[in-house]
Write a structure and sequence with these properties.
heterodimer, A: two-stranded antiparallel sheet, 6 helices, 11% strand, elongated, B: alpha+beta, two-stranded parallel ribbon, two-stranded antiparallel ribbon, 4 helices, globular
Chain lengths: 132, 137
């Protein structure tokens, strides 16, 4: 088995673990006790443990192996949809004029735009998010 | 949520509008589940089974948000982003992001004034955002 094949095994095991109901329960416990550290306190240790178990992580530093993990993820793993959505930079700049942003007004179920909602207002604070 | 409600009330008093845009689910069960309790009322877990593929499905999820928070959302205007709209394409809001829009010059020319996103520790500095709102207007 090549190193590349071993990385495939790593991603398959991690994905299966990540979606396991027991793991999700663990995330909930960590959230309650630590607030927001489920990623660093639960996922990273699991990654480290599995990397060592598969002999992918031997003498390298964590940053080196993490870099390789990211490269292998792009090469071998069809990235989760969520990862592809996560983009830090905007496609527009601060100060740019915005195009029309169509929305559905939940109170009336009618189409509207951010611009229409802000008519006769000096400014708008817009928070984007979801229930989960 | 309490901080957001308070900010929404202050925005309203200062002549602005606080808009909550319901976008793609952050942790749908079929994509990247978390079953988060962080921002939920005590004892409740945020669960959406499937990522929305239609605007109608997203509206149903937004209704669930409204029912969950009930009167807390009153100072906010809740809207739903249609699937694959220009809002997400340009402003990359997922999983959550805050923006300040300036509409004081012209309603036709809405300008982006400020945005906040995750800090290095995956949290959002809400105080920094709140301060930015009232330093701008």
């Amino acid at each position: 088995m090549t190193r590349s094949d071993t990385w495939k095994v790593f991603f398959n095991v991690m994905t299966k673990w990540r979606k396991d109901p027991a793991t999700l329960r663990l995330f909930q416990i960590v959230e309650q006790e630590y607030g927001k550290e489920w990623m660093s306190d639960v996922v990273a240790p699991k990654q480290k443990e599995l990397l060592k178990e598969l002999y992918l992580w031997t003498t390298q530093s964590w940053s080196e192996i993490f870099q390789e993990m990211k490269q292998m993820a792009i090469k071998h793993q069809s990235l989760p949809t969520t990862v592809t959505r996560f983009k830090v930079d905007l496609e527009v700049a601060i100060g740019d004029t915005m195009p029309e942003f169509p929305m559905v007004d939940l109170s009336s179920s009618k189409n509207t735009t951010i611009q229409q909602l802000l008519q006769k207002k000096n400014f708008g604070v817009v928070v984007a998010g979801s229930l989960t | 949520m309490n901080g957001m409600v308070s900010l929404a009330e202050q925005v309203h008093k200062n002549g602005g509008l606080f808009i909550f845009v319901y976008i793609a689910e952050a942790h749908a069960m079929d994509e990247w589940p978390l079953m988060s309790q962080l921002a939920m009322p005590k004892g409740q877990t945020a669960i959406i089974e499937k990522q929305h593929t239609t605007t109608e499905e997203r509206c149903l999820a937004a209704e669930k948000l409204r029912k969950t928070y009930d009167h807390h959302l009153e100072p906010m205007h809740l809207v739903v982003e249609p699937i694959d709209s220009v809002f997400s394409k340009l402003l990359n809001p997922w999983p959550t992001r805050f923006y300040i829009m300036d509409s004081s010059q012209s309603n036709e020319k809405l300008k982006l004034k400020w945005t906040s996103y995750f800090e290095h520790d995956a949290s959002i500095d809400f105080q920094k955002f709140s301060d930015a709102v009232f330093s701008e207007f």
